[in-house]
Design a protein that fits this description.
This protein is α/β, with parallel strands linked by helices. It is built from ten helices and nine strands. A nine-stranded mixed β-sheet has the order 3-1-2-5-4-6-7-8-9, with helices on both faces. It is globular. The chain starts with 21 loop residues before the first strand and ends with a helix.
């Protein structure tokens, strides 16, 4: 679905590098009860020497299956946007790992570039993120080297919605119908209509279905989807520090119903960044030539916007925020 599309960023180019340790990488399959296993990518500090090319889809090498370097490492779990996958924000994951964090990103089953069959079952996403945290703290081979008291979460678009729920937010999906009746020309509502979705059929989701994770102590949220669905009462439970990013030229989630709604309704003022001339997909890394030909709508930026330069600043600010809040 177009309003949810984040994409396959494994074909993109890396844009930034923080100076610190070398980075190891591994892909894991996480058992998830009766559900299909969750696929996740994990980036982490390592003392192993870099032997490029190690991560085939990224221009910056990471050492596959290298030993984990360091102890009491902070953890950041990552949630991609709709139709994405775990590699969608690999440049941010690399920056975190270079700075001494372990960055673990999950591919959300039912809402990836391969399969969007459960894209509107939004309550599945926070549960999957919770399972990722469980796995990292108790089952991952490097779990003894993690600091269980220093856990953050990063999310973009649908992933931003996901980490807000994980941090204590409780949305009300019944707000989608009246929202679309009042805003028929919104990208969200037009896409649902073209897909033949009956808004009256969106299920009523009890508050208990939304999985919160009190282990998460800070969140970075970029262009959160369904921001209007929370409201002040729905965000009352979000008590952790929030870094919130907004694209000033976001035409997929236009103002003031998404980022601003979250900013204004959080009980604690977030660290707020409004990025001039940026579009919704500018929070994704710079695209390769190949991907730009296939998906120009997610790879194109305004002529006056330098996506590569922005990601250098963006990743540095994300790292700084987690360094401060996860001390």
């Amino acid at each position: 679905m177009r309003f949810l599309a984040a994409l396959t960023v494994g074909l993109c180019l890396a844009v930034t590098r923080a100076v610190a340790a070398d980075v190891g990488f591994e892909e894991v399959k996480i058992p998830n009860g009766d559900e299909p296993p969750l696929i996740a990518g994990i980036w982490y500090p390592t003392d192993a020497p870099v032997t490029p090319p190690a991560l085939a889809d990224a221009s910056e090498p990471a050492v596959p299956d290298a030993p984990v370097g360091g102890n009491r490492l902070p953890l950041v779990v990552m949630s991609h946007g709709g139709a994405g996958w775990y590699n969608s924000h690999y440049d941010t994951a690399l920056a975190l790992a270079h700075a001494g964090f372990v960055a673990a990103a999950v591919s959300h089953d039912g809402d990836t570039f391969r399969d969007q069959s459960k894209v509107l079952q939004l309550w599945r996403r926070p549960a999957q993120l919770h399972r990722l945290v469980d796995y990292m703290l108790h089952e991952w081979h490097g779990h003894a080297q993690l600091d269980k008291t220093r856990i953050g979460a990063f999310g973009f678009s649908n992933g931003g919605f996901t980490v807000l729920v994980a941090a204590g937010g409780t949305p009300d999906l019944s707000t989608i119908l009246p929202f679309c009746k009042a805003h028929t020309n919104q990208d969200l509502c037009e896409t649902l209509q073209k897909a033949g979705v009956d808004l009256h059929s969106i299920p009523s989701v009890p508050a208990s279905a939304w999985v919160h994770d009190p282990r998460i102590r800070a969140v970075v949220v970029a262009a959160p989807a369904f921001g209007f669905a929370f409201g002040r009462s729905g965000l009352a439970g979000v008590r952790v520090p929030v870094q919130l990013w907004s694209a000033s030229d976001d035409r997929h989630q236009p103002h003031p119903f998404y980022d601003e709604a979250v900013r204004d309704d959080l009980p604690r003022a977030p660290e707020y960044h409004a990025v001039g001339n940026a579009g919704h997909y500018d929070f994704l890394p710079l695209c390769s030539v190949r991907l730009a030909k296939v998906r120009p709508e997610i790879c194109s930026s305004l002529p006056r916007f330098d996506r590569a330069a922005f990601h250098g600043r963006f990743n540095a600010d994300v790292v700084r925020f987690f360094q401060v809040t996860l001390r």
